[in-house]
Amino acid sequence: MICRNCASRVELELIDLGSAPLSNAYLTDITMRRPEKWFPLRVAVCEKCWLVQAEVYSRSAEIFSEDYAYFSSFSSDWLEHARQLC
C-alpha cells in the first residue's frame, strides 16, 4: 500500500476487523437475491508521516445510492458539533 499523504510504502497494519457490507443501505427484494458486496476493514499506519488510513477505500458512487439511509444534515447533534468546530 502507498501512503495517501506522503507516497511512502505502508507496511504497518494497525488493525484488521475482517470484512463487512456497506452500512446505511436498504436491501430490496431484488438485492436480497444477489450476493452482497463486502469490503475489507483494515487500517494501516504510515511510519514516515504517521497517517492512519484504511487500506482499501471505496469511491462515493459505490457507497451512496439514491436510497442511502443516512444524511448528516438530519442529525442536530452532528450539526451542532460541526458548528463548534468552525
Give a description of the structure.
With 86 residues, the chain is an alpha+beta fold. It has one domain (12-85). 21% of the residues lie in helices and 24% in strands. The chain has 3 helices and 3 strands. The chain has helices at 29-32, 60-63, 76-85; strands spanning 12-21, 38-45, 52-54. Strands 1-2-3 form a 3-stranded antiparallel beta sheet, with no helix packed on it. The protein is flat, with a radius of gyration of 17 Å. The two termini are 33 Å apart.
- Gyration radius (Cα, Å) is 17 Å
- Helical percentage: 10-25%
Order of helices and strands: EHEEHH
Query: Outline, from the CA principal axes?
Result: flat
- List the domain count as a whole number: 1
Beta strand %: 15-25%
Low-confidence stretches: none
Question: Any chance you could write out the topology, listing elements then pairs?
Answer:
Layout: E1 12-21, H1 29-32, E2 38-45, E3 52-54, H2 60-63, H3 76-85
Antiparallel strand pairs: 1-2, 2-3
